[in-house]
Task: structure prediction
Amino acid sequence: MLVFVVWCFVAIGRQIHVTEYGLHHGGDYFARLFPRSQADWRYALRLGPDLWQPLIETIQMAVVGTVGGMLLAFPVSFIAARTGSIPGPVIAVVKSFLNMARAVPTLIYALLVIPLAGLGAQTGAIAIGIATFITLAKLYAEALESVSVGPIEAVRSAGGNAPQVFVYAMLPQVFPLYLSTTLYSLEYNLRDSFVVGIVGAGGLGQKLSNAVNLFEWLDAGVIIALVIVLVNIVDYFSYRVRKMFS
Amino acid sequence: MPNAIAIENLTHAYKPGVPVLRGVNLHIEPGEIVGLIGLSGAGKSTLLRCVNGLVKQTGGTCTVLGEAVETLPEGRKRLLRRRIGMIFQEFNLMERLTVRKNVLIGRLGYTATIPSCLHRFSAADVRLAEDCLAQVGLAGLEMRRVRDLSGGQKQRVAIARTMAQGAEIVLADEATANLDVLTKDDIMGLLQNLSREKKVTLLLSMHDLPLAKRYCTRIIGLKQGRITFDAAPDALDDHAIADVLDRLPPSGMG
Result:
């Protein structure tokens, strides 16, 4: 294992060539991301209204993708969970599909969806939805498998039927897990909606891509700052909600 | 009077070739308080779960309240389970729900699926739940969350649930094992009252032999899936205990 890690470091290390030119210009590009004069500050503040729409689009992509993926993942998780009610071979097929599909990053789904849905936020939302569905179906199934059988036995022994067993014995056990995985998913999707935007799926990501291509470094800096603020706000509220139900 | 429970040559194996129950024959009259004793793994919990059909037996017959459990389709089995309450060592209550809601779980078998899944119960059911809670000494704690209760209080909630269910038979799987000495007596006293006042039949798996002798009207010893002792508590002497448990009892127990 250690030999493997050292081999990786050596291979990558050989490709690093630090030159005076690179250091100077890299630092220069980085510095240009920040406002350096009063005129720069005024320009950055004026960018606000232009970025409002892409910002909302980024949030919409993340929300639509997360909720859509969640709604699909919920029923599928029942046929991917070993709870004794679904035949083993069916579970094996569904789980294998989910595991294989999980290996594909959201960005690849976006590239595959672009020819079908065209450029724009709808493509980003679909790609995020697919990735969320795959991740949540697997995590929801694992939550269902971790349910303790005691409460299930209690509800069944009171004459409860399958929906009542789910609502009274399983849901109270899996709800905190469902909630936390879904909120984590929303946080990741917000970052992903930014990334898929770079390949043309709309939102702030697309704005960033355009800014970098046109060497508008200050515009890029403002967009990155907006994303950092947005992600942190969502992380904070997600943390508060998860804490409330834990 | 017909038997509350009639078991003939009952067998069960979770894995083929590894039997847990090996031909159990047992007849229990209504209103009996039967203590089921035996080592861990003797088959006590499995036997209880065969009675209410939570576990499907491998062979033999199990007739409960006049119905052959093994032949019932799932829908009819659910109707039968309404008449058989069950309480557990780990309580198996819904910790996040209120005390009253946990008792109302006993009414699920009588409530239509959609309203019950929306946590809606009739006013009569709510009154019944509160009445049952008062009978087990928990009046005033209806809206408390179960996770905030002590072990003894939780087991009282479980008993109230079986009462709300209108159970004619109560199965108890090590129901007092996690409780202190005084609370064990309280819980057994409540169960004994239930049997005396409402003619409820009790089948209780227990490890506490003095407690079993004090409260049960009949003791069944289960050893490696077979009944090796079946008599009144007085007959449970040192010799019988040594035979069922494969070891001598602590002094003064027989």
Q: What stands out?
A: Residues 84 and 169 of chain B are 5 Å apart (CA to CA).
